[in-house]
Structure formats: structure tokens, C-alpha cells
Amino acid sequence: MNLSNFRLISLIFLIVAATLLGYFETNRFDSIVLVSALGVEKKEEKYVVSIQVFNPAANQKQGTDEIGGYTYVQSGRTIPEAIEKIDKKLSKKLYLNTLQVVALGENVVKEEGLNPLCDFLIRNTSIPANTQLVVTKKYAPDVFLQLFTPDQKLSSLYVTSMLKQYKSHWGALVLTSPERVKSLLEEHTLDIVIPYIEIRGEIEEGLTKRNIEQFKPSSLLSLSGLGAFHKDKLHRFLSASESDILSLIKDVNQKVSMTVPCEDSNGFVTIDTIQTSSSISSKVKPLSFAIDIHIEANINSMTCQKELSDPKTIKELEKTIEAKITEDVNNYVSKELESPSDVMGLKDVLYREHPHYWKKNKGTLENSHADWDVKANVNVQIVKIGYTNKISS
Question: Where in this chain does the record put each Spore germination protein N-terminal domain (predicted)?
């Protein structure tokens, strides 16, 4: 066989292969529905499972006004049983390989906990390893999955966008794949956090398409903070500011803005962090913890009557900012010490730095930490002050 014949046969083979592949792929996607999100809640001893699927017509050029997807809800004695009920009611097979978000209701994470849920998600080989867990506050997951959201055609896609955005605030704390959560739970010295979402505004309006047909949506999804767990059960919801402080303590390199009052309370200064770092150390005689936080920042805005061209003023501002952040951190720490959960990771620090002490006192240390001595030390360094006008005399 000469070279020209070989090339001709190869070309024919490629054309036939591409045609067959296109045929099989077309027929394959005609027989399945792509799943975007899964919701799980517990009600009256049964699992309430909701599944959000993509609407392929919405992704076509002429489908700009199409609804982005549909949500189906069924209950069952187990999660697979409920999913199977949904599957049987559809004309196409559910395809879980495209799953992006698993929304967990308050009841199921407070009463049952994360372990059985993570076990199911990890065992199911159709569910991607990078699927993210979130908790829904107040409303059940099926309500969240029916919400019309601006910018994204599906509420699950809206949440994944918010999770990416909030990585600058909370870092790896927003990475909550089932395998990661399960591995953290097995550490036994760590309590975990999972982002939670809220629906703000008029919920009834948010469940209609009118919500995205006006300049000001009546209902919005909010990634409001982190849910703090004790072992594998939800204990409480942290506010956005508490979540920021926890992330600062947990050595997240935050890119955020912070606003604090001026020393004379006449005006405010806003800084943009460019680098944050922290570490926790422990002592056992007596038992105490030190949280050391370092922040490098630029001044974004200032309404204080200060002369920024004077190096002394910069030092005074740094001390003022340090004092305010130290106060906020210590207030948060005091609140956490009253809680049974330890999302700050103090027990883990003690276990790693003083393993013999931990082993000897494990029973007492695991049950209470209300009387632990924990102090924060904050160091702020202002790097750039930007353009400033001199204060006239």
C-alpha cells in the first residue's frame, strides 16, 4: 500500500468514526437529563430529596427566555429510594455525573449528621468528587432549588459562583466536597464548618420568573456565612463577620476590606488586605493558647482628620486598627469557648504540640474548653497609603 492510499483510508476511517461518535453521543444525550444539584432534608422519618436538572433548550441561542432547569421532589426511606422514585417519573435517565452542589437542610444535619450523608455521596460512583456541600438555612433545599436567580439560570450555578467568589474571604473553608468533609471528621480533633445559604426577600416572588424580569429582584440568594459543626452535627450559624474572623484565625490569606473607627471616633479608615497570616501556639503549664495574626494592607479610604504623609500618623493608624481587630477576635473567641464545637482548631493544636498531655487529659479536654485562656495578638503593617491631600492649617 502506497502512502497516498494509506492517507485516503485513514481519512475515511476518521470521517466514519466521527459520524458514529456524533450519532452515539446525540442519542446518548437524548436519553438522559443532566443533574445540576441534589437537595436532602429529613421530615417525619423520611428523606425528602430534590433534584435540579438542566433544561437543554435554555442553552441554545434561541433559548434565552427558556427556564434554566426543573426541580423534582420525592421522599423515601433512603436517599437512593427517593432518587429512584424521581427517575421513574421521568422520560429520561438521571445523569448524576454533572452534579455540582448538594444542599443539606437544617433538620438532617442537626439530627442525623454528616457521616451517613457523606457515606452515600462517596459510595455513589456517579457523583463527582468535586461536588460541594452547602447547608440551607430556614428554607428546605427544594425551595432553594426552585428559586429564580439573576446572572445564572439555575440557583445551583449561582451558588457555585458565590463559592468561588468567597474563596478570597474564607479560603479552603468553602471547599467542602464529601471526601474532604469525611476526612476532616475522621481527624476527631477537628470540628468543621460548611457554608450556608439563605433566601432573602419575598420568597413567593422568588419562585416565579418575575423575580428575574425586573431591575430589583424581590428575592435573592445569599451566601451568609459558615455553619459550625460539633462532631458531624450542625451546632450554630456564624454571621458573615464571625466567618471572616474565623478564617483569619485559620490562616486564610484574605483579600478583603476592613473598616474601623478612627482613634478619636471622628471618621473611619478602610484598608484592603494584601496579605494575612496567622498561627496558633499552646502551652500546658498553665494551659493557654496564643493566636498570632499578621496583616499587610493598603489604605483604601480615610475620613479621619490625620496627616498621612507623617510616618507617626501611620504608626498611630496601625495601632488603632490592631486594637479594633484584636477586640473583635477576642470577642469572637470568648463566644466560641462557650460552645461545645471547636472550629478554631485549638484541640488539634494541643494534640499536635503536646501529644502526651492530650492523651493524659483527653476526656476532660474534649468535653469542655470554657475556661481555656486564649489571647489574640494582632500586628498590622500599612504598606501603601495612596494619593493624599495635605490637611490645610
Answer: 30-199
